[in-house]
Amino acid sequence: MSYTITCHRTEYGRKYFSVQRPSAREALSKAEFLEMSDIQIDYIDTPADGRVDMRTLRTLAEKERA
Known about the structure:
Blueprint: E1 3-9, E2 16-21, H1 24-36, E3 39-46, E4 50-52, H2 54-65
Antiparallel strand pairs: 1-2, 1-3, 3-4
């Protein structure tokens, strides 16, 4: 089960692509990198919590560390 980040490049219109990561911590790291790279994150699918936003993903990543 993985975390799926669905996003698109802002300068190319709505050409969607997805990135998958096995843990919330890795997904958060990748999502933050994508945001810094002028890529718009549309949604993040999680194995247990459905679609979440960045704030919820941060919370899930913190829970993984504990």
